[in-house]
Amino acid sequence: MAVPESSPTLGVPRRPGVITFIGVILLIQGFLGAVAAVVVIAFRNSDTIQEATNQTAAALTGAGIGEAIVALLYILVGFGILGGSRGARLVVAIVQALGMGFAIYLLLTHHGGGYTTRSFVTILIALFVLWALYGNDESDEYFRTLG
């Protein structure tokens, strides 16, 4: 089992690159979600947007608020992963498992088109994330040391 190197000044184990990658991706998702939330809320009263989405201003406001909450969660979990939080690691694993379950459901109920491609991509990404967080010896050592 690989033992992570420690920082010479703080004695903190070096974060594996794959964990940094996952954390940064989560932060980017959170930032993009926050931008989407602001845009949805800002344009909720636009007739063009309401017509294109077939939603009312109230529904768009709710969607924007929901998106803002999810964005905040992505940001919190992203910083948690980067900080070595085992709780954040577990939350990400649960979300990835739920995403895979939904993707499998889509594969079983929609046998063609964009759902198939999206489902396969979702499953592949989730498998990579789960491997990065739980199947990698450096990641296990990092979270065990800090958790």
What would you call the shape?
flat
Q: N- to C-terminal separation?
A: 18 Å
Number of separate strands:
0
Profile the largest sheet.
none
Spans with pLDDT under 50 lasting ≥5 residues?
none
Strand content: under 5%
**Class by alpha and beta content:** mainly alpha
Mean of pLDDT: 87
Series of H and E elements: HHHHHH
Helix content: over 70%
Number of helices: 6
Indicate the radius of gyration in whole angstroms.
19 Å
Describe the structure.
78% of the residues lie in helices and 0% in strands. Helix 1 packs antiparallel against helix 3 (57-82) and helix 4 runs antiparallel to helix 5 (114-135). It is built from six helices and no strands.
Summarize the structure.
With 147 residues, the chain is an all-alpha fold. 78% of the residues lie in helices and 0% in strands. Helix 4 runs antiparallel to helix 5.
Question: Secondary-structure blueprint of this entry?
Answer:
Elements: H1 17-42, H2 47-53, H3 57-82, H4 86-109, H5 114-135, H6 137-146
Highlighted features:
single chain; 147 residues; mainly alpha; 6 helices
